[in-house]
């Protein structure tokens, strides 16, 4: 298995989240609202940082995003 730099992986995950979100015509703010309905408070700026690959989301955060987008977690890492 080839190794992948952390920064590249974070950008790929972020890009995939953005693609899924946009395909469902959901804004970043709507995503945050949906996430808060799933599991409490979430900072709006975190979505921007995740989508741009500037932060490393936890598996729990990815799970919340997947639930808020109504997709399987694996869809967010399918690139």
Automatic annotation (TrEMBL):
Domain HTH cro/C1-type: 17-76
The protein's name in its UniProt record: HTH cro/C1-type domain-containing protein
Pfam family, one: HTH_3
PROSITE patterns (alphabetical): HTH_CROC1
């Amino acid at each position: 298995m080839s190794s992948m730099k952390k920064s590249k992986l974070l950008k790929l995950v972020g890009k995939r989240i953005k693609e899924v979100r946009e395909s469902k015509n959901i804004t970043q703010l709507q995503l945050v609202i949906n996430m808060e309905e799933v599991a409490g408070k979430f900072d709006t700026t975190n979505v921007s940082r995740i989508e741009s690959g500037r932060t490393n989301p936890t598996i729990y955060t990815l799970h919340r995003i997947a639930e808020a987008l109504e997709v399987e977690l694996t869809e967010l890492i399918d690139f």
